[in-house]
Amino acid sequence: MMDETTTPGQIANVTFTHAYAKIPVQDVERARAFYAEKLGLVPYGERHGHLYYRGGSASFMLFPSTGEPSGTHDQLGLVVDDLGAVVSLLRERGIFFESYPPPPGATVKDGVMDAGFVKAAWFKDSEGNLLSVAEFPSGSPFE
Question: Residue 11 and residue 27: Cα distance in Å, rounded?
């Protein structure tokens, strides 16, 4: 609960300086290769076996884990300007897109869901983590 001395991004006068996604991987080197070869992403840092990435204005980290991802929900979403072009490029790089029933009012064509306000497609990384690429036709809500 916020009071008059707390602003968004603060809890009891503690400011969160950054938010990032944490993605578990069983094999760090296999995951590093996937993110480089398939997504064109290279870590900007590495500490204690953790790989640090930037995607646009956001950051995420791959970390060694013995746990297995459920693969039943997005663990990382990547916003793009032209979803069709990105999906085509990723397919050329060997990415297989998952198929899910669309929510009410949305359609799916060639593995791309279109809900009007967002278009999205989902795929799994080398470790089974579910990732998405999305286009927001009227502008990204993250800017």
Answer: 36
